[in-house]
Amino acid sequence: MYKLIIGSHVSFKSDDQLVGSIKEALSYNSNTFMFYTGAPQNTNRSPINDSKTLEALNIMKENNMDLRHIVVHAPYIINPANANNREFNINFLRQELDRVEQLGVTMMVLHPGSHVGVGIEQGIKNIIDVLNCCVLSDTKVNICLETMAGKGTELGTSFEQIKKIIDGIVYKDKVKVCLDTCHINDAGYDLNDFDKILDEFDKVIGLDKLACIHINDSKNEIGAHKDRHENIGYGTIGFDNLLKVLYHEKLDGIPKILETPYIKDIDNDKVSYPPYKFEIEMIRNKTLNNNLLEDVRKYYKK
Ligand code: FE
Ligand code: FE
Ligand code: ZN
């Protein structure tokens, strides 16, 4: 039987750490989740609390969660394609890999980065250089290069570019791919024919490299190069096309992570609520909830 591994982005706070993340994920009825180990836009990091991690492992066991399905997202201030920040990129990525390893998590999603003017070829060389300085023979965490929308000078916007990066890596078995549905739509892949996309992925990169999937609808048309996520079933990709990805037989057992936008309170737009509990419910029921926004507001509003 098909095993749906579904979760969302959750928080990781310095006091409760992994225990807090798991509790949040369970409140959405998830069986996996993704988190940043600290604010993605800065380098402030609290030390990993091993007793919290131990407590978290017990809660996971009680709830049949598999540590191998849990995903960390690397901070987006790391831009491996930009050689001007080479030292910083390498040091911070190494530090993050160590923190993730200490948590026992085995997968870290990384944006390949933006070449900021040096061109695609040089940008890809820079990415390979940083990865080869961080992914070593004893590295336990796999890096998953994320497919990108093509905003600005972003790289990783085609399977061919991702393949070129992987080709330059010394320890290739430790570098995998995270497919983001919003990003590939915005990059120009037509999710009305997902089988064709998977065939192409298999031909260019190899399906064995696909380790994680970000499930997001998109606010923009195919090829818009925008990267603006929309709630499941409320965007241009649509509910049925996303269901095909979520339940594709070739993607059995691969973690699917929602990164859809929070829903704003109707009276106060400074307050917003996570949509994930209700999105996961409609994914499990395979039925679009036309009252998603209202249901979320009703549930969380105090
Ligand atoms: Fe991402
Ligand atoms: Fe993503
Ligand atoms: Zn995105």
Written account of the structure:
With 302 residues, the protein is an alpha/beta fold. The chain has ten helices and twelve strands. It has an eight-stranded parallel beta barrel with strand order 1-2-3-4-5-6-7-10. The protein has a two-stranded antiparallel ribbon with strand order 8-9. Bound molecules: fe (iii) ion (2 copies) and zinc ion. The site of one fe (iii) ion has 4 residues, from loops. One fe (iii) ion binds next to loops.
Please trace the helix and strand order, writing H or E for each element: EHEHEHEHEHEHHEEEHEEEHH
Structural class: alpha/beta
What coarse outline follows from CA principal-axis ratios? globular
| Rg | 19 Å
Mean pLDDT: 97
Question: Which molecules are bound besides the chains?
Answer: fe (iii) ion, zinc ion
Number of strands: 12
Uncertain residue ranges: none
Q: What is the CA-CA span between the terminal residues?
A: 39 Å
- Describe the largest sheet: 8 strands, parallel, barrel
The helix fraction, in percent, is 25-40%
Please work out how many helical segments DSSP would assign.
10
- Biggest sheet strand line-up: 1-2-3-4-5-6-7-10
Write the layout of secondary structure elements.
Layout: E1 6-9, H1 17-27, E2 32-35, H2 50-62, E3 71-73, H3 86-103, E4 107-110, H4 120-134, E5 142-146, H5 159-167, E6 175-180, H6 181-187, H7 194-204, E7 210-215, E8 217-218, E9 229-230, H8 239-246, E10 256-258, E11 263-264, E12 272-273, H9 276-285, H10 292-300
Parallel strand pairs: 1-2, 1-10, 2-3, 3-4, 4-5, 5-6, 6-7, 7-10
Antiparallel strand pairs: 8-9, 11-12
Helix pairs in contact: 1-2, 3-4, 4-5
The structure holds fe (iii) ion (FE) (2 copies) and zinc ion.
